[in-house]
Amino acid sequence: MNTNNKSATAATPSPSKSASAPRKRVQPKSARRRSREAALQGLYQWLITGDDVGTIDAHMREQQDFDKADRAHFDALLNGCILEAPDLDGVLARHVDRKTTELSPIEHAVLMIGAYELKHCIDIPYKVAINEAVELAKAFGGTDGHKYVNGVLDRAAGDLRPLEVSARGKSGSGSSASK
């Protein structure tokens, strides 16, 4: 019996062992991140089922922790992406290697959110909009989907935010000294 207890104890990392290994501090999700995640789930549902946006919206608001999301941003993303889907797909079509209807629904939804933020959310720097889309793809998409999302949105940013992209290119790394 004692050997069983020892083996069970040995399998559990001791505080001293885990304290010596560097830990990545997990940051709490921001309200905007939560709104993007909820919008992604709603867009996924819309792409798969074609359900009415009102039905999807009501369903998403019932989800656990929705009250922690930025509701205004969620509304803008979900409704805006669905309303402007043909326009957003037109922007994306110039930068994808296949029809947007052939993309995985997750990648398609993430790209729509990224393109929508690049087009309409000027208060969000384009690099942040791209990074947020990449993080969504990492959390919800396939193994290397985030790399695809990054490349497509980086090229789309040139179309949707040409002044910001060119200014960033001229300033090099965008150091805080130039801001």
UniProtKB/TrEMBL annotation:
User: Which residue ranges have biased composition labelled Basic residues?
Assistant: 22-35
The chain positions of domain NusB/RsmB/TIM44 read 34-157
Single GO term (MF): RNA binding
* Compositionally skewed regions (Low complexity) per UniProt: 1-21
Please report a single Pfam family linked to this protein: NusB
Keywords of the record, alphabetical order, are: RNA-binding, Transcription, Transcription antitermination, Transcription regulation
Region entry Disordered: which residue ranges? 1-35
* Xref: SUPFAM superfamilies: NusB-like (SSF48013)
Q: Name one GO biological process term.
A: transcription antitermination
The organism sits in which domain of life?
A: Bacteria
Name the family the entry cites: Belongs to the NusB family.
Can you name this protein? Transcription antitermination protein NusB
From what organism does this protein derive?
Answer: Kinneretia aquatilis
Primary gene name:
nusB
